[in-house]
């Protein structure tokens, strides 16, 4: 939620001169994007978002992310479309950073989604999975099973300062996940970070999906599990079955889950809760002095994990029999 | 440069329902405004800025600020126009804060103004002074002579930790300012904070002035002095006489400075440099842990003050003989 890199008006004008989108009328740093710097940009030709990639994004991954957005937009998905410069390149450099201009999407991120929003989100997620099927590039999910142990190693010694017993709970859970993690599920492009701030609505309709910078190749049902975690719990960590039902029905109306995916859903929910608990825990324990971003609470996901540990069947998430 | 107060989509929709400006299409927190929270707001009827006043703004001052903006806009000055709600009130409440919706101004803030920008700024400043002459409300300048000693008292003991000798230099300068501070100069509404980030340009023209939250009743020439400090120094604290000339000529083309104002300009420059040195010093010494805003360097204004101390006549700022 911050502007990490300041762009001067001269730098911006020079950068825009390499594009065919007019001259700048106004630009304002926007308080979105934990990973990157974003400006809202109005030119004589329209509205755009200017993104500068900060150090947390690996430059080598940018062709995958930008190519994916272009692919999905071509398939009719409402997602930001990277604008190519006069040389046909979507990726440029500005203020010492890799930078892109993407189209502006209208819509608002709902902070407290209703069941209706969850149903629409489920449908949009399934469409994303289908639209990605013929995208030629692949990117392994660095934040799945194999990534969790190294993450935990960074936080293990201090974990109990955050919550008593957290280290032991996590150790045991990681062992179980390793033992039971499913393989061979239907896979392809997943968003992998489809939290409420990355989904825009106009009224009850999804108007766009944004922030593809965790997108990767992994099991579709893992993406469903991430969304169950992000959309269907209440603030007190209770699971809202009505929202779960709505989301899963919305998803299945577009793409039916296979039996193996249904069976794996509880363990995938545990795994995805583990993923967000761990990255939040590492961030929580490593807040730099003077940080611009307030870290998110890892214990929210520890509590969700505890819920999932008691789930025996995907029905408990609201999946039809 | 931060969003201090998060506004949920439900809160925003309910707030907008009290206005006659359509329904929300998108809104994004913008990284502008050190004192307030600002959202860029797009509704079915147009573009706006939504401002939530944070604790540093005294609510009792808001009718003055909002009334002034409405007055200036009516006089043809390009400044944000507070939009009245269905009850005819510009001021509402949102997320527990006083809040207004103001019209969106196009234009970009130049980070490194040229002499041409300075000339245009001088003209815009003089127009502001003329446009304010029949505004009925008054607000004393809390950050002029009488306000400096209490500010310094908050910082004096630690001043030398910022720069060796700063406490003694400041004590001596405050005594001189008290002795020589001019009275009876032509006065009226001044902006009092017209830094480059508060002036928008489209090409070489000023397209708008914003951020009237330090506006008050004081000597016009004090506002000129603030702008000489803010616009005509280079990054190495050297004074750019070409820019000074351009700004003063731009100002005088609209409103001629009187002899008493010309004579007072050097001491007004010292005083206004003192004002920004002191507020920055206090902020510098009181950065809360986890602060979202990086404090500005007080020594920039200590160096400018040192320049002004050696000025004998307004000619040295570029004023025609």
UniProtKB/TrEMBL annotation, chains A, B:
Residues 27-257 form the Aminoglycoside phosphotransferase domain. GO terms for biological process: threonine biosynthetic process. CDD domains: HomoserineK_II. The keyword ATP-binding applies. Coiled coil: none annotated. One of its GO terms (molecular function) is ATP binding. Its EC number is 2.7.1.39. Keywords: Amino-acid biosynthesis, ATP-binding, Kinase, Nucleotide-binding, Threonine biosynthesis, Transferase. The keyword Transferase applies. HAMAP family: Homoser_kinase_2. This is Homoserine kinase. The lineage of its organism: Bacteria, Pseudomonadati, Pseudomonadota, Alphaproteobacteria, Hyphomicrobiales. The gene is thrB.
